[in-house]
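Quick illustration, no need to memorize.
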Amino acid sequence: MRMISQIFSIWLIIILLLILPATRTTLASGPSEKAPIPNVDFEVAAKRVDNHARGNAIYIFRLYCALGACSLEQLALNECEDSPSGLAFTPKLNEWATWAGNLEVKLLPTNILEVKVFQGSHKMLPALLRLTFRPELPSAKQVSKFQASGFLDFSTKEGLRGHTPVEFAALPDSIQTIRMDCPVLLRGLEKEAR
């Protein structure tokens, strides 16, 4: 009886060893498999494609991904407007993150990251970024192609009605200096009334 039990146990182990690797490869090659997001630290300066009244405004996009999680920042500079001190701009920062649920990042073939930005709650008002990059370790830092479309300009008084999506084009040179058209407006502490 003991010998039959041992033979049965050996056969069971052999069968499991033959079945489990086949199951693992079938599950891994299923449709739910996603390519892992590489570690990246990109910064690209861009301008609006349309000839908007904001003139020479500069937009800096920064995408940072590590351990499969990503964040995207968009910093607006040189959007000159009337202020109490004359023509000036206030830097504006927009942020999105995968862990906040308002950013999705997908790795496409040939080193392209597709970044979907949700500008509204509940995954509403999507904008799209496509960045072609050169892979490097420990993280990629060089972008060779940049496309950004579908962003909305919330600073206008029109609200969501009448908005046309904004497209951005990267500045042509890898490094350059640009003078701002107006000074930066900074807010400090209010003076106390005496």
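The CA atoms of residues 63 and 72 lie 5 Å apart.
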